[in-house]
Each structure stands twice: as structure tokens, then as C-alpha cells.
Inverse folding.
């Protein structure tokens, strides 16, 4: 996440090749993409940001990219269709486009916050093989957007996992052009933050839900932890455990595997105090299993979406992680590129 | 790992149920197993160790276990066949038994170190869902075997991964009965340590090679790291990456995914100094890819066993991790118990 002092007019993105681990040539290629895009749009150089996503360690096929940039420049039009078209273009292993729009009114003027993201695999934040582009017509003159964006990202894009693999190429960009004629100030800040959170939260959810060959989205709500870091460690140990993820896939509410992952998470707790429930069905109360609820746990886990609540009874801290299951399809899909 | 002051006469182990997260009843059941086994063998109480492996969170079916213990006690015979029989009995999702024997001579007397292990899934040390039983006829009178065993375990049983899931029920036991009439002392210590390492190393290798539905064993040799912990972090990030493991399965020498995992391992390094080779075929030298070697990398990765060397050129520390690939079969096998 960077804060830009020079005006940014747009983004040029490619998929299929991450332009990562490509050394000096890679840097030069990114620079070329920015310059060619600016030229194609008739805008000053150094006003475009460059994003790439795809295979690591191979040079970009610059001939094709240059040709495409020249063609795109001529095709740029204003309006919503262009946003849709952009959202489709950035997809890689995604099966559907991911967009979200929020609006709010200030003194009869409408402010829009709109986001578009891609990401399906190599999803474990900080942040994931995901690109997210958020635009707004609020005026951010004199305001540092970076901490505002970071706050929204922390519990959305940074709180998801598909496969536990972090990425070389994760990006979230927030661009504001001021066209709404509404200023971001003390009177609009909280409303703007809420809209931004909503966009990030919705897009983060769509990324997990479109995880490579997944069948389930599981919301892990850890509460009563001694520290937020402890709560996060627990959520990530569970959400990244292959044995937990495969059991979700198999509709098996195997709380023993949750307890096992809790045990190796880097967090202090007393196993005899823990409550676990699947949805609103208790599986473990104060460390004691409620086996008669088993048919109901199974019903919860057989849904495409469900929530697991874990209360550590060790403090006040909490953490939410959105995780997916793990399927044979994921393995098959990723066994070669 | 515990050091026992009271004499231990044997081990009673069950598979299919881990007797973990079973509270007071679980503790009582373990005690009952020890007592019944001692009674069945006609030996004093408190001389048997108890090991369990299997599903977490369910009470042991004590009726069946008690019956089996009574029958086993009557069936105990001395000799190698019994060792074989024991090795078969402790298997769970293992497809084959895992045993190893080493001997050495001291003044015409033979010392034997023999081991038997089980483990195939939930394999990420400290230590793994593995049970390993090592017996020797050396006399360890007055010697603390614990640090000697720990030294052997650190770079063998604690340096393997199948799925990155640690276990509730990992155990390594070393029992010495002194029957060889050879004492463990300054003159025999190094030879004994070498034999013990060989047993642990061989059994650890067999556990990875029999990992649940795996097709490959990959030896990761990290060298030139700033610290051993840094080298271990790198090896584990790579060895537990779903994207790396699936690419091995697909015979895809995707060094980009190795670099990605290196990037999120908790270790300091300069990407432009790294050497990576598959077997003896360089893929990356000083951070620069050698694409002309690609056909040869592919050949290496298509083997059932291969080694990846990664030199960080950041120091002198090194670490070796044995890892497996990840297959659709693993997912299918673990989706329900």
C-alpha cells in the first residue's frame, strides 16, 4: 500500500504473468507498461500504476502487452460498462467477476465508492494473490487515505484464507477523484469509512467464495482470547489446517481436529474452558463434548456457508477469519500451471 | 518425552482412538489400560506406558480394549516375530509397517538398537501423529537418555512434514534393558548415538514415504541461512505450502512458488543472492533463472524422490526437512473419519 503524491490517472493491469522475480528487466517492463498506457490515453507519463498477476519468474511477453495497451487506449470510454469490462479482464483462475458499489448522500450530493477485485488462489493475507481497485468520487484533498484504507483492509482482505499461501503480487489501490464535490472531512469521515469497509468486506468475501475449486465458506469467530494476536493465531491455525479443511469438505464436523489445531496455535488457553459451536449448535461446552448434538452439527457443516464460534474464556480479544474448505479439485487445479 | 525413574517393562498401545480431549474419564481409562496390561503379564502395576492414536474427542471403547489386553497378555512371546506383530498392530492409516534395526560390537558383544513406528497423517512435528518405540539392550544405568534421544529426534522425527498438522498424540519412547552387558559410557556413547540417529532417521523417512496418499518424498536442504531457525522457517514454509506441494505432485518444477514461500517465511535474505537447484540441476543462480535447464528440472521433479538445494548466501546455518507432495487422494482420504 503506497500513498501517492503525484496525481494518478489510472491503472494498467495484466493477468497470466506476475512479473515477479524478473529482476531489472521486470522493472523496466513495468515502467514501459506505465509509459505506453499514458501515451495511449494521451495523459502525462508517470500517472499510471501497474499491477501484474500470474506465474512467478517469467518475463512478460511485452510484444503482445504493448499491442494490447495501444488498442485499449483507443477503446477507453467512460461509464459503468467500462468498469464491468475491467473487472472481467483482471480475472485469472477466478470463475466470476467481483465488484461492489456503495453510495451515500451528503447535502443532496451522492458519493460513490466502487470496488473491483480478482483473487482465487494463493489466498492468505498480507494479502493474497489478489488485486483490488477501489475508486471514489469523494475529494480527499489534504487527507492521508493510507491509514483509512489500512483500517478497512486489516479485518477484510487481511482476514481471509483459501490455501494459506501468501502472494508476491497483492495490491489494494484506492483512488479518489473529487468529482462528487463532497470533501472527506470530520463530518463525512465515519460514513466514508463505513462505505469503504463495506466494499472491502464484500470483495474479500467474494474472493473466498470463489476460492479455487472450494465448496464452502466458513466464518471462524474466535472470542474470549487473551490477545487479538492470540485470537488470530487460533483462527489461522484452524483455517489453514489441511485436516480441518478436508473435514469441512466432507461434511464432517470433526471438532477434534479443531482442538488439535488450537493446541498448536501460538496462544495460551485452558482446554477445559473452551466452548465450540457450529452455527448456534454447541459441540463443546467448557471443554466437554455434547455428543447428542452431533446430528445437528452435521447439518450445519453440510451447508455451503456456516459459522464456527470458539470462545476461549481467556480474555476479551476476538478475531474473525473467513476460510474455505480444501477439495480434490484444488489439488488437481494447482498441480501444474 | 519423559525420563522414567521407575522401571518400565513395556508399552500398551491402541489405534483408532486417540483418547485425547476426553477429560478425567480419559485419564482413568489410560490408567486402567496400564494396570490391566501389567496384570495380564503378571508384572507389577505402574510398569507399563500407554500410547493411543486415532480420532480425537471420543471415549475409548474400554470393554473391547480390556478384553484384548487380557488376550494379548497370554499371547506374549519373546523374539523377533513379536516385534513384527507389534509393528503391524500399531498401524492406523499407514499402508506398511515401519521398523529398523542397528547393531554394533563392543569387545565381542553385540548391542542392538531397534525401532518401530507408526504415522502417516497429521505429520508435522513436534512431532506428528506418530508413535515410535525404540528398544536397546545397552545398559544405561546412571545415564540420562533424554538429551541423547532429543538430539536424535530434533533432526529426524522433528524434521518431517506431510500436511503441516501437528498432533495431540506424538510419542517417542526409548527403552534400555541392559541385556547386552555393554554399558553406555564415554567409550560407547558416540557409537550408540550414531546407531540411535540411524534408527530415528530411517523411521522418520519411512513415515514421510508412507504419508497419506502421497506420491513423492522431497528432501529440502536449506543452506547459507543467517540462523538455523531462519533455515527451518524457510524449509517449513516451502514444505507446507499447498501450492508447492501440489506442483510437486504435478511434476511441475515451479520454482516461482518456492520463491513465493521463501518470501513469506520468517527469515531475512536477499532474493538476488539465492541459488536453487533441483537435484544437481541449477534452476536459479544468484537470483537469476536458468530457463534452458527447464527440461532437466522437470526430469528431476518427475522422480518419486528428489532433493531441492536452496543456498541463501546469508550465513552458515542450514536445515534439512523431509516433505511430501499433496494429492487429491489425501483430500479424499481425510474428508471424513
Amino acid at each position: 500500500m503506497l500513498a501517492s503524491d503525484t496525481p494518478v490517472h489510472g491503472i494498467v493491469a495484466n493477468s497470466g504473468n506476475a512479473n515477479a522475480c524478473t529482476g531489472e528487466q521486470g522493472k523496466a517492463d513495468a515502467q514501459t507498461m506505465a509509459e505506453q498506457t499514458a501515451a495511449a490515453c494521451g495523459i502525462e507519463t508517470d500517472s499510471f500504476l501497474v499491477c501484474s498477476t500470474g506465474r512467478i519468474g517469467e518475463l512478460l511477453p511485452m510484444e503482445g502487452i504493448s499491442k494490447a495497451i495501444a488498442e485499449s487506449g483507443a477503446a477507453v470510454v467512460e461509464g459503468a460498462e467500462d468498469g464491468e469490462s475491467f473487472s472481467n479482464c483482471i480475472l485469472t483462475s477466478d470463475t466470476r467477476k467481483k465488484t461492489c458499489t456503495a453510495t451515500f448522500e451528503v447535502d443532496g450530493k451522492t458519493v460513490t465508492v466502487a470496488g473491483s477485485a480478482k483473487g482465487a488462489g494463493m489466498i492468505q493475507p498480507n494479502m493474497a494473490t489478489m488485486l483490488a481497485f477501489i475508486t471514489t468520487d469523494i475529494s480527499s484533498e489534504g487527507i492521508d487515505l493510507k491509514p483509512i484504507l489500512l483500517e478497512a483492509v486489516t479485518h477484510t482482505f487481511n482476514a481471509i484464507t483459501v490455501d494459506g499461501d501468501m502472494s508476491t503480487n497483492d495490491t489494494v489501490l484506492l483512488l479518489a477523484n473529487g468529482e462528487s464535490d463532497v470533501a472527506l472531512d470530520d463530518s463525512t469521515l465515519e460514513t466514508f469509512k463505513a462505505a469503504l469497509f463495506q466494499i472491502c468486506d464484500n470483495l474479500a468475501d467474494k474472493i473466498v467464495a470463489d476460492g479455487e475449486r472450494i465448496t464452502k465458506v466458513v466464518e471462524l469467530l474466535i472470542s474470549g482470547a487473551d490477545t487479538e494476536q492470540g485470537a488470530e493465531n487460533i483462527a489461522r491455525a484452524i483455517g489453514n489446517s489441511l485436516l480441518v479443511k478436508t473435514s469441512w469438505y466432507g461434511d464432517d464436523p470433526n471438532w477434534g481436529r479443531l482442538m488439535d489445531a488450537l493446541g498448536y496455535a501460538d496462544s495460551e488457553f485452558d482446554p477445559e474452558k473452551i466452548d465450540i459451536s457450529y452455527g448456534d449448535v454447541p459441540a463443546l461446552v467448557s471443554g466437554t463434548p455434547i455428543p447428542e448434538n452431533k446430528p445437528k452439527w452435521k447439518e450445519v457443516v453440510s451447508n455451503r456457508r456456516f459459522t464456527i464460534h470458539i470462545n476461549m474464556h481467556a480474555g476479551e480479544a476476538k478475531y474473525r477469519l473467513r476460510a474455505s474448505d480444501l477439495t480434490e479439485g484444488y489439488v488437481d487445479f494447482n498441480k501444474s500451471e
Q: What stands out?
A: Chain A touches chain B through 50 residues (CB under 8 Å). Residues 189-209 of chain A form the longest helix (21 residues). Chain A has a mean pLDDT of 87.
